[in-house]
Amino acid sequence: MRRVLMTALASAAIGIAAPALAGPTLQQQTGPDLSTKIYGTNDSGFATTGTTVYGSTDSNTGHDVLFTGYSTFNPTLNSGTTTSIDITPGFAQVEDSNWVNPTGNNPNPSQDDLYYLLMDPAPAFYNYEFSLQTLASGANALIYLFYATTTDPTNWILATGSPLQNGSGDTQYIFGDASNPNLSIDKILIMSSSPIEHAKQNSIQLTGTRPPAVPEPATWGLMLLGFAGVGVAMRRSRKSKLALMQVA
Question: Which 8-state DSSP code applies to residue 99?
Fold first, then answer.
């Protein structure tokens, strides 16, 4: 009976180590970038400055990601007032092209008017990671995220977890559901209560693909506990068999 209980406990510990389905959520992220990075393109004929600029999911070849900047945007009407942005080559950084560093008695100049950033890639994805720098930080800078699915690309949905407070400096965020590679997101709309200076570290996980499984420390601990329990149970079983053989 003791062996059965030990085996059951070990199996339960291994089962607990499996991640739970969380659904798509927005949260701060400290892990590595996702597998498909978005690069800025610098090909002639494709603007690097304007209300819409182009990125690529294939290292500067192709133009399959659109970034559009807005000073105002109404998700219900799916329209707003655009503003000029620019994109850098390499690992894409999208910036307010009119950005003015505030000084003295001018803490929020009118040129700093990028409050909404729309990211619209051609391929569907289920995870999106980005880093945001805003004029304000903490409680004065709330970050919201809206998303649209490929099955309903005109209906913006406020992401679970919105709003988040932006920390000082760049703060990294991730949205999606790492446990559901079949989730199909069409596009993302970032909204900030404080002017956005730049967004960078843009990367996505394409629908239908799975990133390499790297267990977290807590998961490793539960797995080791489970294996240890199985080992103890097997060792007790061997001792019991040896004792019976000696009696016989």
Answer: -
Q: Rounded to two decimals, what is the model's pTM? A: 0.75
Which one, of 36, 25, 17, lies nearest residue 180 by Cα?
Answer: 25
Q: Residue 163's beta-bridge partner residues? A: none
* Cα–Cα dist 117/188, whole Å: 8
pLDDT(108) > 70: no
Q: Identify whether residues 56 and 163 lie together within a single domain.
A: yes
pLDDT at 245 exceeding the cut of 60: no
Q: Are residues 32 and 94 in the same domain?
A: yes
In this prediction, residue 156 carries a pLDDT of: 97
Q: Which residues pair with 55 in a beta bridge?
A: 40, 65
DSSP state of 24: S
d(CA 127, CA 178): 7
In this structure, are 235 and 192 located in the same domain? no
